[in-house]
Amino acid sequence: MECQFMNFQRKQLEKGMNYVLELIARRYNVNPGKLVDMDGRKVSEVTQLMSRGAYVLIPVGQSFRDTWYFLPDNAIDTSSNKAMIEERSAQRDRLLQRRQKKEQKAKSKSTGRSKSVGAASSSVSPKITFNGRNNRR
């Protein structure tokens, strides 16, 4: 299942938690039992929805540990400023790209070091022992 953002208008939020759950259920095509935060605490009021929080939608007849539908950070955004929401999403994408570049850089450095160490050790002339005496070639 793909994670999706859900933006609510103030009028929708004012209709209450049941209406919000119904809208989420339509989006995910599931019969919702409850909406909980990542610690498993039930979100019972619309005012408890944080604009940058992550939530889990639990279907009827399931528990928090059974089957869940993970809604990631920013999945439910009660902010009315659409430009700010899009900027946060773009900011997160840039952060993930930076992390990926750092990981690739670290991998390439570690492979580069192992090659240079092998090359340096082969360029040093080895010691040869004849009759207990150390002679260099």
Indicate the overall shape. Answer: elongated
| Oligomer type | single chain
What is the residue-mean pLDDT, rounded to a whole number? Answer: 69
CATH architectural name of the domain at 6-78: Roll
Q: Fraction of residues in helices?
A: 40-55%
Number of strands: 7
Task: Give me the strand/helix succession.
Answer: EHHEEEEHEE
Number of helices: 3
How much of the residues is beta strand, in percent?
15-25%
Distance between the termini: 67 Å
The secondary-structure class comes to: alpha+beta
How much is the radius of gyration in Å? 28 Å
Largest sheet: 3 strands, antiparallel
CATH C-level of the domain at 6-78: Alpha Beta
Low-confidence stretches: none
- Enter the CATH topology name of the domain at 6-78: Ubiquitin-like (UB roll)
Neighbour order of strands in the largest sheet: 2-3-4
Quick structural overview:
The protein is of the alpha+beta class. The chain has three helices and seven strands, in the order βααββββαββ.
Structural description of this entry:
It comes from Caenorhabditis japonica. This is Doublecortin domain-containing protein. Residues 126-137 have a biased composition (Polar residues). Residues 81-137 are annotated as: Disordered. Residues 84-96 have a biased composition (Basic and acidic residues). The chain is an alpha+beta fold. The protein has a domain at 6-78: Ubiquitin-like (UB roll) (Roll). Helices cover 43% and strands 19% of the residues. It has 3 helices and 7 strands, in the order βααββββαββ. The chain has helices at residues 10-14, 17-28, 82-123; strands at residues 6-7, 32-37, 55-59, 69-71, 76-77, 127-130, 133-136. It has a 3-stranded antiparallel beta sheet, with helices on one face. Strand 6 and strand 7 (133-136) form a beta hairpin. It starts with 5 loop residues before the first strand and ends with a strand.
